[in-house]
UniProtKB/TrEMBL annotation:
Descriptive protein name: IS4 family transposase
A Pfam family it matches: DDE_Tnp_1
UniProt source species: Pyxidicoccus parkwayensis
Keywords recorded for this protein, A-Z: DNA recombination, DNA-binding, Transposition
Entry keyword DNA-binding: yes
Family: Belongs to the transposase 11 family.
UniProt signal peptide: none
Gene3D superfamilies attached to this UniProt entry: Transposase Inhibitor Protein From Tn5, Chain A, domain 1
Domain of life, per lineage: Bacteria
Ranges of residues in domain Transposase IS4-like: 124-352
């Protein structure tokens, strides 16, 4: 369902990106509808997405939103039980559809001068990366972290297209999961170029990419020691260098930098599989040497251009910052995997909404007397502050009257107060029990 202008898409918000029919169809297919018989699934999706706030307690905000939309009287525990695995899978599909809707609205002609000739050489230029978020200790059984002090955490792994800085594929895993294991299959799509950091160094995956016709550019780990095939840029004994390990050639002085650059062909090998790749080293302004492994040809990127292109990886951090500081990925207080999954993808949907807001601002900037001077993060923060307006629009669409609105406000206050009182009573009993055992 699409609206007539980009601005109307923001106003339509939750309903414009994915229709109620889409949500219910996906829910039936994923089994979420069968497991949520007594709940209004469309309202549950809308209320969860509308809980875009960097303040702790996303689920509590979603709970209040749900009562406001439906008028259903639920206890907080009964509501939180709705955030199960099936609902998490539903939210993931809704997020995927929302991102695709924004991608279609952005179009293919969005300029990105930093990519330059890369867009002509590859079908897409992508970044594979992940961001980590701590959870409460109760989640440690399914989401163990690497910290003893904070034993629970998850990672959101994303493959982001630099054409529009939106995820092409993603996944949620415990923090201890290695990045290479969580690398989306889309990173091996033929004709694509994917930038990766050191966490994705895995020869087997590189061989998979080469065999699939995909390209990569990654930092080379110090312990990674490929065999030299040919020296293209570098001083020393080029003929003797052939067949030597890279480390040996450097230590023995057989291979040296030429004007601060080394560019060689190497052989990757693992379990009998072999393939040719390229290693580039470039000295930085302070004399430090950075090593890169890639399959990008020299006709596309010269040695120094390899280092410059790799810097484009930083743009994925803008997406992570928008999710964390903007729509509140850091506000998650859930402990069950289904709840975490649901809330993570609610944040991705909210991010898609912020991109519609960005399109509206760009349209406004093109009008006489207007200028585009609003940063992307500022627009994300603006969306979080306007979330009550989006919720109000959803309530109007459902025909909620002022009288019903007042009743629902009182219901929220009643349920919240009762829940708070019960929590305090449990804490009081615990203190009394601890004092009794100490006596």
């Amino acid at each position: 369902m699409k609206t007539s202008t980009p601005r109307a898409k923001v106003a339509e918000g939750l309903r414009a990106l994915v229709s109620a029919e889409d949500i219910l169809e996906a829910a039936r297919r994923l089994g979420a509808l069968q497991r949520q018989r007594k709940v209004d699934l469309v309202a549950l999706v809308e209320s969860t997405v509308a809980a875009v706030t960097p303040m702790p307690g996303t689920q509590t905000t979603a709970f209040a939103n749900y009562i406001a939309l439906t008028g259903q009287k639920l206890s907080p525990s009964a509501f939180f039980e709705r955030f199960n695995h099936a609902f998490g899978q539903l939210m993931r599909e809704v997020a995927s559809r929302a991102v695709q809707a924004v991608r279609e609205a952005v179009g293919e002609d969005t300029p990105f001068n930093e990519l330059g000739a890369l867009l002509d050489a590859f079908t897409d230029v992508q970044v594979a990366d992940s961001t980590c978020q701590l959870l409460q200790r109760l989640a440690a059984d399914w989401a163990p972290s690497t910290s003893e002090a904070r034993p629970a955490a998850f990672k959101w792994h994303a493959l982001v297209s630099l054409k529009d800085e939106l995820p092409v594929a993603d996944g949620v895993t415990p923090q201890r999961t290695q990045d290479t294991r969580a690398l989306p299959d889309e990173a091996l799509s033929p004709g694509t170029l994917t930038f990766m950091d050191l966490g994705y160094t895995d020869t087997g995956r590189f061989l998979d990419a080469i065999e699939a016709g995909a390209h990569f550019l990654v930092r080379l780990k110090a312990q990674h020691d490929p065999k030299l095939l040919r020296v293209h840029v570098g001083k020393g004994e080029r003929v003797r260098a052939r067949g030597m390990r890279l480390t040996d050639a450097l230590l023995q002085g057989v291979l040296k930098a030429e004007d601060g650059v080394i560019d060689v062909d190497v052989q990757l090998e693992k379990h009998g599989r072999t393939a040719q790749a390229r290693v580039v080293a470039v000295e930085g302004p302070e004399g430090e040497r950075r090593w890169y492994l890639t399959t990008v040809g020299r006709d596309v990127l010269k040695a120094r251009e390899v280092a410059e292109a790799y810097r484009l990886r930083w743009r994925v951090e803008l997406l992570f910052k928008a999710l964390k500081s903007g729509v509140g990925l850091t506000a998650l207080r859930a402990t069950r995997p289904g709840a975490v999954l649901s809330l993570v993808y609610a944040k991705v949907i909210a991010l898609a909404l912020s991109r519609l807001l960005e399109l509206s601002m760009q349209q406004k900037a093109g009008e006489p007397g207007q200028e585009q001077a609003t940063g992307r993060l500022a627009l994300v923060l603006a969306l979080t502050r306007c979330a009550p307006l989006l919720l109000s629009h959803a309530m109007m669409s459902r025909g909620v009257t002022l009288e019903q609105l007042e009743e629902r406000i009182l219901l929220i206050a009643e349920v919240t107060a009762r829940s708070r009182q019960q929590r305090r009573e449990r804490e009081r009993r615990k203190r009394e029990a601890s004092l009794g055992s100490g006596g």
